[in-house]
Amino acid sequence: MVREDFWVEVFKIQGSVTPRVAGRLFGFSLFGAAVYLFFEVLQFHNGLATAHYEYIGVVLALLLVLRTNAGYDRWYEARKIWGGIVNQSRNLAQIGLIYGPRDRTWRENYARWVAAFSPVCCHSLRNEQNFEEISELSEVIGTGETRRLSEANHMPMYVVRRIATMLRDAVAAGEMDRFFFLQAEAERARLIDHIGGCERILRTPLAQAFSIKIRRFLFLYLLFLPIAIVDAAGVATPLVVFLVAYPLLALDQIGVELENPFSQARLNHLPLDQISATIRSNVLASIDEIPAMIPYADSPPHLAHAASEVAPARFGRETADVSLQSICPAET
Description:
The protein has 332 residues and is an all-alpha fold. It has two domains: 19-284, no CATH class; 299-324.
């Protein structure tokens, strides 16, 4: 992954949480300006020490970091699970296509159903099940099966059952050895485990009580912040409130964005469509038989390359012979 230049990311808006917290940020800043005007017009002095308020801010920042870390753990676990889906899909496809029936129709159907698993999981995690929402799957498994899929109780399980049926039929027809059938079944079971792990992340959000307390604490802190600093900050009170509120509100929103790594409404959702497209390309490319291997003797290295390698290779062999003689001298 290529990281963009420092100044590009400093001023980048796309992918940033700033637009999503801008309303709250300017609201607290305007409230800070109103507090300053109120104290300035009425000549009030609160006489509060700001040191104690700074300690409270440190505690709040720690709580927000804990929430952000919890969200990142969910995001990273989901990415590892989808890495497993990539590996298991490739393994399952290769076992069936290499050790399964040679029939072209069976091979193509098998590869297409394996390739369909990842996009079906993607739609299922995004709660997309209507035919219109999953219509692009008709390019992989056909329109008729896509309609059946949209009516299924659990779409990933429907795909897995189709794969299992094809494997069972291949074994029953004597076109697949039971050993390789068991290997394919192990990979298929791992795919079920992976979608179960994704559903666990999706249906177990951060505890609501924890989220409520943090946001309530954050609101009260920013509400009383201009009152606590108005004597020391003076006319700069709105600016100080802005500079303090920006990172705190941004951390809070980042925790929210990371909580659901599957939703396209989140800024940092996982690139599930790209991952699924990669799996589909890899699996469907395996349908055709690879050509017979060309023996090394029938395809020697390029002459220019070979000539440049002759002297170093010969020198290496002579050096090795000398070293062996020095270590193991011949018996007299």
